[in-house]
Amino acid sequence: QELMEQDVTVNLEVVGYNKGGLLVQFKNIRGFVPNSHEPKLRRINEERDEISYKSRLIGETLPLKIIEVDESRERLVLSATAARRDLRDEQLEKLEPGSVVTGRVVNIVPYGVFLDLGYVTGLLHISKISWDKVDHPQELLQLGDEVEVLIEKIDADRERVSLNRRDLLPNPWQHFASRHEEGTLINGEITALVDFGAFVFIEPGIEGLIHVSELEGTDPDAVLSVGDQVLARIISIDTERERLGLSLTQVTREEQEAWMLEKA
């Protein structure tokens, strides 16, 4: 009763379970944690999965808050949800933007993945997973994966944590710029044609643009097709904006012929 009034978190061992929830041991008193007060159990719909999860918890210690004490009925009810809420608030206060943490993938959606950081769940947006283009997070990450990420932004009021994995990986643009200079030749594959030019895949993480003004003609579809291999001259490298400007018109006929012979 005193612990409940003081709103203290207690760590108790799971000693059993029944259909309604978990059984825990508080000294010589048996306590009960309803399914609705254990976050994971609230999300499980299949009875088989629920029993499997409960059985795995036996012997584990859970942080809990006491929410009901009824001596006459010998009833002690506890909540993992309430304890996690306090622990989540504590962890949110300790997390700092710019710090590196490790999280476990607990949910995958088309726009990113959610990582369990302990008592806080953070979102790793699809654009922050890799320097390469990612069509769906499942291309690189699976449920249960341990991922090292950068804390990018924290909104404590809305309990939202934004994560970044990409910036912990080698920056392909910096690496590219260290190996190539403006004015040199490079070859790549046409990946898309748009009104203002053509996009060219150079290497993983690097895609360049041939502006329509650097093409022979004003209609990209008339001179190029998706999948074409081209030789282009580098006219600009902007690592901060991650942009690579290319030109076909600045490639000489002799350079083009030499490249074609080399390919053959």
Chain-wise SSE layout:
Layout: H1 2-5, E1 9-18, E2 21-26, E3 29-34, H2 39-42, H3 47-57, E4 61-70, E5 75-79, H4 80-94, E6 100-109, E7 112-116, E8 121-125, E9 146-155, E10 160-164, H5 172-179, E11 185-194, E12 197-203, E13 206-211, H6 220-223, E14 229-238, E15 243-247, H7 253-263
Parallel strand pairs: 8-10, 13-15
Antiparallel strand pairs: 1-2, 1-4, 2-3, 4-5, 6-7, 6-9, 7-8, 9-10, 11-12, 11-14, 12-13, 14-15
Question: What assembly state would you assign to the polypeptide chains in this entry?
Answer: single chain
Task: Give me the number of helical elements.
Answer: 7
pLDDT averaged residue by residue:
90
- State the strand order across the main sheet: 3-2-1-4-5
Secondary structural class = alpha+beta
Question: What is the strand tally?
Answer: 15
From the alpha carbons, calculate the radius of gyration and give it in angstroms: 28 Å
SSE string, helices as H and strands as E: HEEEHHEEHEEEEEHEEEHEEH
Strand count, sense and closure of the main sheet? 5 strands, antiparallel
Q: Residue share in helices?
A: 10-25%
Ranges where pLDDT stays below 50 over 5 or more residues in a row are: none
**Termini separation (Å)?**
85 Å
- Work out the strand percent: 35-45%
Overall 3D geometry? elongated
